[in-house]
Amino acid sequence: MKHHIKLRNEELNRVSVKEFKVQEKIPATIVLDNVRSLNNIGSVFRTSDALNIEQIYLCGISATPPHPEIHKTALGAEESVYWQYFTSTVEAINKLQAEGHRVFAIEQTLGCIDLRDFTPSLNERVAFVFGNELKGVDQRVIDICNEVIEVPQFGTKHSFNISVTAGIVLWDYFSKFWQIKKGTRN
Q1: CATH at 125
Q2: Which of 2-6, 50-54, 75-79, 169-173 has the lowest mean pLDDT?
Q3: Is residue 10 assigned to a domain?
Q4: Domain interval for residue 54
Q5: 144 belongs to a structural domain
Q6: What is the domain count for the chain?
Q7: Concatenated DSSP letters for 53-122?
Q8: What is the pLDDT of residues 118-164, one digit of tens each?
Q9: Residue 162: burial class (beta carbons within 10 Å; 0-12, 13-18, 19+)
Q10: pTM higher than 0.90 for the full model?
């Protein structure tokens, strides 16, 4: 049996906030559409930091740092991940599309893409829109997104917590993106 010894914090080879801000990022933007829970916002910051995501757009009623409730779950990631606030999610998406991003709402709709079938492109900047805990992504926002991706679910509850959904989608994107990038190096 293989013996695993847990690493101490000083053995994790973490980069500093300064180093993180200048290192090459995964070309993805997270858009939070009226997310009400500060804990969810903090969790998205922490996941974005862990996966080296480019930036987060906080929209509408979504709270912004600095805030102790965001910090509690972000554990300082709100200081490393670039973020910007928009009063309107539509305004944020219009800006992203004007900059060449392909924007995906994460929602359950007719004709959506199953996350398992989504394949990123190395030459494409993307944005993922996550919605309000009760109402999901606003229909006006869905209407202007390029595509919609659904995280498949098979139980009686067809909704994940937004921070869980973000973790699933971002890990899937990160994993697929790096597999493709690794394949181009060979």
Answers
A1: 3.40.1280.10
A2: 2-6
A3: no
A4: 18-152+161-185
A5: yes
A6: 1
A7: EEEEEEETT---SS-HHHHHHHTTHHHHSEEEEES-HHHHHHHHHHTT-EEEEES--TTPEEGGG----T
A8: 999 999 999 999 999 999 999 999 999 999 999 999 999 888 999 99
A9: buried
A10: yes
